[in-house]
Amino acid sequence: MRACTQCRRIVKGTKCPVCQGETTRNFQGIVVIFDTESEIAKKLGITAPGKYAIRV
């Protein structure tokens, strides 16, 4: 698994399919967002559902 250095989305390739950013294997923690109106999503600045790295 890799995390995008721009949008923090967890992806499989070396380029993020969402924002075209570079990815890295160096990240900490994973959060899964189902509801973008949740407090966690708002605090992390996430606007789309998916798997995200907590720290990249």
Outline the secondary-structure elements.
Layout: E1 2-4, E2 10-11, E3 23-24, E4 28-33, H1 39-44, E5 50-55
Give a nutshell description of this structure.
The chain has 56 residues and is mainly beta.
Low-confidence stretches: none
CATH architecture: Single Sheet
Shape: globular
Residue-averaged pLDDT: 97
Secondary-structure-based class equals mainly beta
Tell me the quaternary state: single chain
Give the domain tally.
1
C-alpha Rg (nearest Å): 10 Å
Helical percentage: 10-25%
Number of strands: 5
Give, in spatial order, the strands making up the sheet with the most strands. Answer: 2-1-3
How many distinct helices?
A: 1
Largest sheet: 3 strands, antiparallel
Strand fraction band?
25-35%
Q: What is the CATH topology assignment?
A: Rubrerythrin, domain 2
SSE order, one letter for each helix or strand: EEEEHE
Write up what this structure looks like.
The two termini are 13 Å apart. A hairpin with a 5-residue loop joins strand 1 (2-4) and strand 2 (10-11). Helix content is 11%, strand content 34%. It has one domain (2-55): Rubrerythrin, domain 2, CATH 2.20.28. The chain has one helix at 39-44; strands spanning 2-4, 10-11, 23-24, 28-33, 50-55.
